[in-house]
Design a protein that fits this description.
Helix 5 runs parallel beside helix 7. About 80% of the residues lie in helices and about 0% in strands. It is mainly α.
C-alpha cells in the first residue's frame, strides 16, 4: 500500500534501497542453505562456518547502509512530510530482513552442537519444513522486488498456517519421550523456522498494509 505509491514516484534513492533489501534477502538464503545443509547431514565445517558468518556480516552491512541512506534522504529531501511514511516503513522492514539472516545463522548452531536432523522417524517432515522455508525466502524476495500485491496477500494467508504448524511441532517436541538432545534440537529448529517465516511475513506485509499496521506478524495472531 504505502510502498507501492513511493515505488511509482521515481525516487532513485528509494529504488536503490529496495535493491539492497532484495540483495540482503538473497544473502539470507545463502546463509539458510548453508546452515541447513550442515544440520541435515553435512555437519559443521570451516567452510560452512566461514560462509555463514561472512554472509551474515554482508547482511548487517546492508542494514547499516539502508539506515544511513534513509537518514541522508530524510535530511536532504525537501518534501520530508511526503516521504516520511516510506522511510518509517523501510526502517521497519530492514530490521526484519536482518533478523531472517540472524535466525538462519542460529540454525548453524544446531550443527555445531552435533544435531543431525536426517536421523529419526520425523526426518521427512523436518526436510519438508526446511524446503518450505527456503522457498519462502526466495518467494518473499521475488514478491518484494516485483511488487506483486496478489502474491503478497497469498503469501501472508499461507504464512499463518505455517506458523501454526511450527507451534504444533514445538509442542510435540516438548511432549516427546525420546532423547532430550533430540527434543531440544527439534524444538529449536521449528522455533527458528517460525521466526524466519514471521519476519518474512512482516516484510511482505509492507506491500499491502499502512505503516501503522506493520511489524506484527512476528507476534502471535491473538496479539496483533
Amino acid at each position: 500500500m504505502v510502498l507501492q505509491f513511493f515505488r511509482s514516484s521515481g525516487h532513485d534513492p528509494i529504488e536503490e534501497i529496495e535493491a539492497i533489501l532484495v540483495g540482503m534477502l538473497r544473502d539470507a538464503h545463502v546463509v539458510y542453505q548453508t546452515a541447513t545443509e550442515a544440520v541435515f547431514g553435512a555437519g559443521k565445517s570451516k567452510e560452512a562456518k566461514a560462509t555463514v558468518k561472512g554472509t551474515d556480516k554482508q547482511i548487517n552491512r546492508g542494514q547499516e547502509q539502508v539506515r544511513q541512506m534513509l537518514m541522508v534522504h530524510g535530511a536532504v529531501q525537501g518534501n520530508l512530510g511526503t516521504d516520511l511514511p516510506v522511510m518509517l516503513a523501510y526502517m521497519s522492514v530492514v530490521k526484519d530482513v536482518e533478523r531472517v539472516g540472524d535466525y538462519a545463522k542460529n540454525l548453524y548452531d544446531l550443527a555445531r552442537y552435533g544435531a543431525d536432523l536426517t536421523v529419526g522417524p520425523d526426518a521427512d517432515r523436518l526436510e519438508e519444513t526446511r524446503s518450505s522455508v527456503g522457498a519462502m525466502i526466495d518467494e518473499a524476495a521475488d514478491i518484494f522486488e516485483s511488487v506483486d500485491l496478489d502474491a503478497a496477500r497469498s503469501f501472508l494467508a499461507r504464512g499463518d498456517d505455517f506458523l501454526d504448524r511450527c507451534d504444533d511441532e514445538v509442542k510435540a517436541a516438548h511432549a516427546s519421550q525420546g532423547a532430550v538432545s533430540d527434543a531440544v534440537a527439534r524444538a529449536l529448529f521449528y522455533r527458528f523456522e517460525k521466526r524466519i517465516a514471521a519476519h518474512l511475513m512482516n516484510l511482505v506485509s509492507s506491500l499491502v498494509l499502512p505503516v501503522d499496521e506493520l511489524d506484527y506478524y512476528d507476534e502471535d495472531k491473538d496479539d496483533r
